[in-house]
Structures are given as structure tokens and as C-alpha cells.
Amino acid sequence: MSPTIYTSSHPKVFIPQTSVFTHVFASRGQGDIGGFPGSMKAFIDSASGAYITRAQLMDLALSFAHGLRNHPNTRAKRGDTVLIHSPNSLAVPVVLFGCVAAGIRCSTANSAYNFQELAHQYTDSRAKIVITAEDGLKTTTHLNIISLLSMVGAHFPPIMQGDMMIGILPFYHIYGEYQVVNLPLVVGLPVVIQPRFEPTEFCANIEKYKVTHGLIVPPILVVLARHPAAEKYNLSTLRYLCSGAAPLGRDLVLQVKQRLRKNGAVCDIAQGYGLTETSPTTHLLPHFEADRKMGTIGLLMPNLEARLVDDDDGDVDAEEGKPGELWIRGPSVMKGYLNNPAATANAITRDGWFRTGDVAIRDKEGFFTIVDRRKELIKYKCPPAELESVLLTHADIADSAVIGVDDIEQATELPRAYVVHAHPEEIKTSAAKALFAESVVKWMETKVAKHKFLRGGVSVIEAIPKSAAGKILRRELRDLAKTERAVTPLKSKL
């Protein structure tokens, strides 16, 4: 029996067979840069108000490219790798597009990396040149990037004169690099660059620059739902927020929409899905369906195919309406892992399917919902993302993560929650933390089915460990859980 292959309900889009630099900066008329006036602001520094225009960005990138190839201290050749280690700034787009123009590979490092972490990426990427701020890997192709820009750009909400995007996602991560650096240039949307996320500064910049669009992660929505800055500043210009990198619960979206509405903002809050290996976006919830299909990751992007499989080999399809591992095939899927053919072969099948490792459900209208990471499903029939979204509706919880912990007596895993108190000064003592944890356990029992109770307990911590993209680092929590069990071993009920 042939496999069930889902295709996008969107019409296919034309994907130019050209370089990223040509696609973004091609002139289509006098003074035109990429379909928009060269004098249009491209990127704005949030703190100083300094900016570079589209024409300046192109000229600076070309000058940087020339320097890379010809300066006696670099003499970079096509195919060499440049390692970029910098927080968000006006210089980063110049460096990125300069490398593209010079035919140089870019490896972007987390700006918070210490020496050892940076050394590892330097060695792994085989970089010839390191570019870093004063204070301071996957292999995708031009086709991957242009495919993304064509597919997402065709379904981005309408842009009006004066619209502005807030650039808060780190440019060293693919979500920020492609969606906040590349995409706005293609759709003609100026970007206000904020180097690092800080709630008050974020809200102040929305008011100052009359921001209309934002690509964000769920923790930022938690801030908009809870932080006093969201009421102190005028956020009424916001029209579109799209969240990615981690599952987004329906209840949190409703909380944010209600609070923004009090501030005068009529804002669509959508959700997208993708991975570094898929460059990244594969699914996007249309802005006009944001309320009706809240909680889903939307529709499959044009030109892509998807499967939901029920086994490791892909021989068995998940039943209609049932969860299965999401596989993706199409022009935005990466070429492979740099210098690691074994990992590439393990991730991409011979016929081009990328195994995402995420479990999804598809409804009859073609909208997908992520259940959870396949490796993160708790054996006690609980997807962590579902429990986390419920926990985030608790008035005194600022952030949460759920993992499975072993229960020796029942020979299974039980869900344990790690939570961050919204007002930590109120629970400074161990006794206060224990009382709060107990109250959360009881509160959850009023919110979820019995088999989803937090039978593994609740632990109060200062911060949920996360990657730069906002993904929960569950491995660190599992390591923490091992130490907690060592201190307080499971007691027999006999």
C-alpha cells in the first residue's frame, strides 16, 4: 500500500532559481531595491534610532563581501566558512548578506556562548574567519532560503505604509535570521532591532516606533499577559503576532488578546511551525484563521509534502485524525548536517523525507496541531506541552516545563512540573515553596483529566532552562530530577 502523502491546500508558488542576494536586492526600476524604494528604512536600532536603508544595506554588504575576498588579512575563498558571534545589531544583516554576496558560508553562534562553547562550534564548522561584537549547524542552500521567502512571503499578512516589525528574536538562530532579517526585506517591512529581550524595553519600543508586527516565542506572550509594562505602554498599534519555536496554548493566546484589547489593540495572534532543518517554516496559521483555528500550527506551506507515520521506518501511516510523527519533504529541507553524513542519513530518508521527531494531528480541514516531541511523550499518556499550556494560565506561574520522571513502584513515568513563580519574593523559604507547589498540584486536579494529574510532583525553580530559540531544555530538567530523587527517594506505600 502506498503511503498517505498530504500536500498543501495553498496553490504552489514560483521559486526563483537564483542567489539569495539577487532575490533580495534585485532592482526592478530606478532607485528600486528588491521591489521597494532604496531609501526605505531596512533596520532601525531601537536604542539610538540610527538606521540603514535598503540601498545602504546593499552597498555595505557588497563592500564587506569585497573585503572578505580581497583584504590581505582574510583572502576568503568561495566555500570558506565565517563564524559570526554577535548579539542583534545593525551590523549583523550587513555581515550576513556580505557573506552571501561573497559566496562564503555563515555559521552563527549564540552570542551568550562562553569560550569553550564557541571553540566547539569554531572547530565543528571549520571556520576560517570569526566575526564578533566588541563585547563579545546545519547546511542550508540558497534554494532553501529562497523557498522559505517565497512560501511564507506569499502568505504574510498585508503590509501597509508605516508598518513596522520588532526584531527581538536572536539573529544567530535560524528563526530570527530568516524571518526577521530576510523576510521583512522581501515583503517591505522595516525592522526595529532590539539586541536582547527585556520586557519593559520591549513594550516601550512598541510604543516608540508604533510597531505593528512581531515574530515571537511563547515566553514573550507570557510577558504580554502578565507583566505590568504591557499596561504601562501604548501597544494599540499591534496587529499581528506570530509565535514559533515552542507549542502555544489556546488559553495563553486568549489571555494576551484580552489584555491587548484593553490597550486598544486588535491583534491577530497566529502560530507557525518549523525546524532549523526545514529552513525553518513548514506550517503557518493564516492570520484570518487565527481565532477560529487557535491552538493549531495552521496549514502546510506551498510546495511542501507531509506525512504522519506510526512507526520508525515510515511503513505505517497514522490513522486519520490520530497522532503520528510528522515527516516533511520539499525544497526548503536542508541539504544535510555539515561534515556529518551519518547524522544526515539518520534524519533524511533516501526518498527525501525529513523526520521531524514531532508528533502531530491533522484535522479534516488540513490544519495541523503539534502534540509533542516524540521522545518527550510521557508514558503516562500525557504530552508535556498540553500540561505546560494549562500551567501558564495560573495567575502565579510565570513559566513552566513538564517532564516524565520514573516511578519505581508503578514501573512507569509520571508527569512532574517545574514552575517559575511570578512573584518569587513571596516564596523565599523552602516551606513557602513547598506550600505553593502543593497548591499547584491541587489546582491542576481541577483543570485536567485524572490521568494527567501531576503525580510526579511540582518543583519551584528560578528559571526554566531554554535554548536561544526558546525551546525548553528538558535534558537539563531530567538531570535536575535525578538529583532531586537522590535527595528525596521515592517512598513505598506499604
TrEMBL record:
Record keyword Mitochondrion present: no
Entry keyword Transcription: no
UniProt superkingdom: Eukaryota
SUPFAM superfamilies given in the database record: Acetyl-CoA synthetase-like
Domain named AMP-dependent synthetase/ligase: residues: 41-134, 140-338
PANTHER family noted in UniProt: AMP-BINDING DOMAIN-CONTAINING PROTEIN-RELATED, LONG-CHAIN-FATTY-ACID--COA LIGASE
Listed name of the protein: 4-coumarate--CoA ligase-like 7
Organism encoding this protein: Mycena venus
